[in-house]
Design a protein that fits this description.
Helix content is 50%, strand content 21%. It is an alpha+beta fold. A six-stranded antiparallel beta sheet has the order 3-2-1-6-5-4, sandwiched between helices. The longest helix is centred in the first third of the chain and has 46 residues. The N and C termini lie far apart (95 Å).
Length: 187
């Protein structure tokens, strides 16, 4: 006689496994969306603060002092080249840097680069040794306007977001570049 094979038990077990995997994926997507939404809101807030700056100096202070708190990171530095001279603007002041260092850094990164590092980019200055995650955003401009890099860093290694994160960082860099042009063309 033929024996009936019990498919029902295996089918139910397979469906339960699939349901569990789908539920887990759903929770991951919800967590990602909440994090992405928070990052988007923080970046929009940072751009609005940038727009409120009443002078070039206030804009530099907004970027280097207020942005770290607003964006939940540890360090923000601007590296700019203007009239053939290099500058590094940080929370503790402004220093000269060799323009070739800025140029070389720009050549080696995408328009917005997010990465984990053992030590931050040297343009962070003395803070570089404590940086474990960094974002480098190219600030592009036509001469005679300054060009350079926006550097954001944090001391803990971050999960790198990929395309969506680089788009947000690109937006932040584009807004900063527009405000730099505004203050330098119409001070």
């Amino acid at each position: 006689m033929a024996q009936v094979i019990p498919f029902e038990e295996r089918a139910v077990a397979t469906l339960r496994d699939r349901l569990g995997a789908a539920e887990s994926a759903k929770q991951d997507l919800i967590a990602y969306a909440r994090g992405h939404s928070g990052a988007t809101a923080a970046i929009h807030g940072a751009v609005l603060a940038l727009m409120d700056a009443g002078s070039l100096e206030a804009m530099f202070e907004t970027v280097t002092v207020r942005w770290p708190m607003m964006l939940g990171i540890d360090e923000v530095t601007l590296a700019l080249v203007a009239d053939g001279k290099g500058f590094r603007v940080g929370r503790n002041g402004t220093w000269t840097v060799e323009p070739r260092i800025v140029d070389r850094a720009i050549e080696r990164v995408e328009p917005a680069t997010m990465r984990s590092v053992g030590c931050g980019h040297p343009l962070f200055g003395s803070a570089a040794k404590g940086i474990r995650s960094e974002v480098l955003v190219i600030l592009d401009a036509d001469a005679p306007l300054p060009y350079g890099l926006l550097l954001l860093g944090q001391s803990k290694e971050a999960v790198i977001d990929g395309k969506h994160g680089t788009e947000l960082m690109g937006f932040l860099g584009a807004a900063l570049g527009a405000m730099l042009r505004r203050w330098l063309v119409n001070p």
